[in-house]
Amino acid sequence: MDWTIRPAKTEDAAEIAAISNALIRNTLITFTTDEKAPAQIARTIAEQGDRFIIGVRGDQILGFAHYFPFRSGPGYRHTQELTIHLGPAARRQGLGRALMARLEEIARADGVHVLISGISSANPDAVTFHAAQGFEKVGHLPEVGRKQDQWLDLILMQKRL
């Protein structure tokens, strides 16, 4: 392990945007086609504080994870949705597992009862990854997303903390 995990800082936003925007441009793992501006990510980091974490090697950001409200309203306070993304150099090295474990620790301390992940059907590796981390498939929404002229299913997975 030659990386560390730490809370993101607003000055990390440009590197996080680069990872995120490459996935938006080049893959079907996210349904969005709108790239993220560093200023937008910096605001999210400022709002989320320690709930937005990154994996770094030296000065290079390798990946990130954070959680945010699943739905609005006080009844959903203890249910949060997560995002976890790795750059190509960080895949299959254990960083994803380490980011997820740290994110779960933070979530537990924050009173989160359930973490939810919405996964594109075009990303079966993410389904396998989440299952290996103890997430269960709880929903499959056929053809709810569209990107690059393809209909995509959304797979919902959850983990009770």
Salient structural properties:
161 residues; 4 helices; alpha+beta; Aminopeptidase; globular
Structural description of this entry:
There is one protein chain. The chain is of the alpha+beta class and 161 residues long. It has a single domain, classed as Aminopeptidase. Helix content is 30%, strand content 36%. The chain is built from 4 helices and 7 strands, in the order βααβββαβαββ. It has helices at 13-26, 38-48, 95-109, 124-132; strands at 4-7, 52-57, 60-69, 79-86, 114-120, 136-147, 150-160. The protein has a 7-stranded mixed beta sheet with strand order 1-2-3-4-5-7-6, with helices on both faces. A hairpin with a 2-residue loop joins strand 6 and strand 7. It is globular.
Beta-strand residue percentage:
35-45%
Q: Taking Cα atoms only, what radius of gyration do you get, to the nearest Å?
A: 15 Å
Integer average pLDDT: 96
Order of helices and strands: EHHEEEHEHEE
Outline the biggest β-sheet. Answer: 7 strands, mixed
Question: What fold name stands as the CATH topology?
Answer: Aminopeptidase
Beta strand count: 7
Q: Please tell me what the overall shape is.
A: globular
SSE map:
Layout: E1 4-7, H1 13-26, H2 38-48, E2 52-57, E3 60-69, E4 79-86, H3 95-109, E5 114-120, H4 124-132, E6 136-147, E7 150-160
Helix pairs in contact: 1-2
